[in-house]
Amino acid sequence: MGKGFAPSCANIYISKLDRLAIQRGGDYLKAYFRFIDIFAIWSGALQQLQIFQDYLNSHYLNLPGIHITFTIKSRVTEFLDTLVYTVINPHDPTVKIIKTSVYFKPTYTHQLLRASSFHPTHTTRGIRKS
Would you give per-residue pLDDT tens digits along the chain (130 residues)? Predict the structure, then answer.
């Protein structure tokens, strides 16, 4: 998986992108979170979002391996192991509420390793740590 300091180096390397995105997003960028991937909520038009993406990529042409691509979804999206979706506020139908639930990837089989199995004991103890 790499060295222990790799996430800190990546955060330093990408911190300029975070600042540019937050500054350039203005009133359209309603939320911006980064943990491995970037999760953002955009309230502007799709054409404005494309301009925003082009702007971010234009600042990273000289950094190898960095290219920003957006996956655009309007109601439900997966972010890491979280399903993020909107619902209409029952008290004010003009307002949407953001909700979350656990997202299971299609490859997840819901299988468990029982402590009573014939695996070495350090295997089952290690599951609790991870």
Answer: 578 888 888 888 788 888 888 988 989 999 898 877 888 989 899 999 999 998 888 876 556 677 888 888 888 988 888 899 989 989 999 888 889 999 988 888 877 777 777 888 787 777 766 6
Q: Give the CA angle between residues 69, 75, 91 to the nearest 5°.
A: 140
For 17, list phi and psi in degrees, rounded to 5: -60, -45
pTM score:
0.68
Phi, psi of 45, rounded to the nearest 5 degrees = -75, 160
Domain boundaries, the chain: 1-72, 73-130
90-121 b/e with 16+ CB inside 10 Å = b?
eeeeeeeeeeeeeeeeeeeeeeeeeeeeeeee
